[in-house]
Amino acid sequence: MSPTVDDWLNILHGFFPPALAEDWDSVGLQAGDRSWAADRVLVALDPTLEVVREAAERGCGLLITHHPLVFRPLLRLDVSEPVGRVVAEALSSRVAVIACHTNADAARPGVTDALAEALDLRVTGVLRQAHPTERVKLVTFVPSEATAKVLEAMALAGAGEWATAEQQLGMLRERAPKDRGGLTGDILIPLIEGLHAFAEGDYRRVVERIGPLRPRIVEIGGSRAQRDVFHDTLLEACFRAGDAGRAWRLLAERVARRPDAYWLTRKERHGHPAA
Questions:
Q1: What is the CATH number of the domain that holds 253?
Q2: How many domains does one find in the chain?
Q3: Do 9 and 114 have their domain in common?
Q4: Among 23, 86, 170, 229, which is least packed, fewest CB within 10 Å?
Q5: Are residues 202 and 262 in the same domain?
Q6: Angle ∠(82,24,121) on CA atoms, nearest 5
Q7: What's this model's pTM, rounded to 2 decimal places?
Q8: What is the 3-state secondary structure (H, E, C) of 182-220?
Q9: Is 233 part of a structural domain of the chain?
């Protein structure tokens, strides 16, 4: 199955989040249809008419440029004018155009890092803070099947840095030998492995990896609600892995400790005989 323009757009936004772009800039899809197939890609500095024609001649379904094609809102689309002519050529040739401009400049690594390397410069700090906005921590609860979509949407909006589970685990494994308290190797790595297994539907591995963490989960810190999510994930994994006995014991323990709506509702949902 051929990658689409939307597939490429999501990849590019992962590397160069649109939120990093300056307010005056125009980045992302400039012309074309997200559903178009794009087996081949041409990269250029400017989206000129000649470059669009070259992309079409090479059989490219996508042209990625640094400078935007539509820099300011168009009041009209006149094909006798430069921008209108390029847009018309791109659409008629089914060549989508995507721009990665100041968002690519500000990303790390990005255009500025490449320029510094080419000039053999040593980067010692930031010249100007482009986005001095206050950072916030967002905590939310969503259905498990919507987790990936929410994470992707947040990452594309500029929330943190996108990393796969394997990348996260790789960073943690590098840090583990330096962690004298053992928190990284004993708790964080098994926890992420377990959550990754839950997303993949390997519920027995979830129980295997995060089940032993229960006595130490308080060491991670966080709110009571976050600890509830941990226990709820383990509970669901036990049920889905067919370990009903362990699931009922865990549920009974949670209800005994906190006989509130959170756990009583789960007791009713799973149809416990004593519910």
A1: 1.25.40
A2: 2
A3: yes
A4: 23
A5: yes
A6: 100
A7: 0.49
A8: CHHHHHHHHHHHHHHHHHHCCHHHHHHHHHHHHHHHHHH
A9: yes
